[in-house]
Design goal:
This protein has eleven helices and eight strands. It is an alpha/beta fold.
Length: about 290
């Protein structure tokens, strides 16, 4: 059986202990916060030049801090005055975004809207203390999430959200587990691909990217999580929290845990599709 991890076994014990490091919390490392600001800047550039306003966030396998990236990127965007809606599309698994945002439990959401059980306006939640952010929970776990997400009403829902928000961020399951991210990616402007340092194998990352691209999903760029910046600084004269993949030059060296070829496959493909403009692979130090 295909093993997407770079080791024989992996513990799932941490799944129930997932925590979130919000960039708005006091005491967050400077580099951690700056990495999300860099990601925000890059995304704003894409939205201004490539009409990127709705995108899916996914990863190769679970436990790569995908949801952490989704929440913190949403917060970074709202801090700059953007209206953002964060949509939990992780229907097959146990959704976690509602817990991160302290939105409550047993909420109606995506599945209920798509099955016409509730109106979209009635499912939207305004998290307390977070201006400009709206949250759409996953809702009741359906028996057929992939089929539900591929229905025409999913496109209708996304189009409606586009009309009310500057950015629509859809948090989807890992691409190696189910096809949901590819299904969603076809109806939005692209995918943000999350890779945890020294976790999934290079071959698994490449395969996941190929699945997205074969489905016609535009890969906007990659975010590297659990990155050991201190170790990287020993090998580089640059202290930036992100790495520029470009055929002509780069800052520092590619971080451990992801091969240069795998990262280039993600970022340079996007580069070619955006008239030669370079894209960025942003490093963060997420805990989940």
């Amino acid at each position: 059986m295909w093993n997407p991890f770079n080791r024989n076994t992996i513990s799932n014990s941490s799944a129930s202990k997932r925590s979130l490091q919000l960039i708005t919390q006091k005491g967050m490392p400077f580099a951690y916060v700056e990495a999300y600001k860099a990601l925000r800047t890059n995304l704003n550039f894409l939205s201004g030049s490539g009409d990127v306003h709705a995108f899916v966030v996914t990863s190769t396998v679970p436990e790569e801090a995908k949801s952490n990236v989704s929440v913190n990127l949403a917060l970074a965007l709202t801090e700059s005055g953007k209206k953002v809606v964060l949509v939990d599309c992780d229907l097959p698994r146990k959704p976690v975004l509602h817990r991160y945002l302290k939105a409550g439990h047993n909420l109606k959401g995506v599945s209920n809207v798509l099955s016409r059980q509730v109106a979209l306006s009635d499912a939207l939640v305004e998290p307390k203390g977070i201006p400009n952010l709206t949250f759409l929970p996953a809702g009741t776990t359906p028996p057929n999430p992939s089929e539900l997400l591929s229905q025409p009403q999913m496109q209708e829902m996304v189009d409606t959200l586009r009309g009310s928000y500057d950015f629509v961020i859809l948090d989807a399951p890992p691409i190696s587990m189910v096809t949901d991210a590819a299904v969603i990616g076809r109806i939005v402007d692209g995918a943000l691909f999350v890779v945890r340092s020294k976790y999934a194998s290079t071959d698994a990352v490449k395969t996941a990217l190929e699945k997205l691209q074969d489905a016609g999903v535009k890969v906007l760029g990659a975010v590297l999580t659990r990155y050991d910046a201190k170790k990287s600084l020993k090998r580089s004269d640059y202290g930036y929290g992100y790495y520029y993949y470009n055929s002509n030059y780069s800052y520092g060296t590619p971080p451990d845990g992801i091969s240069e070829s795998a990262a280039e496959k993600s970022c340079l493909t996007s580069k070619n599709r955006y008239n030669g403009k370079e894209k960025h692979s942003v490093h963060t130090e997420d805990e989940t």
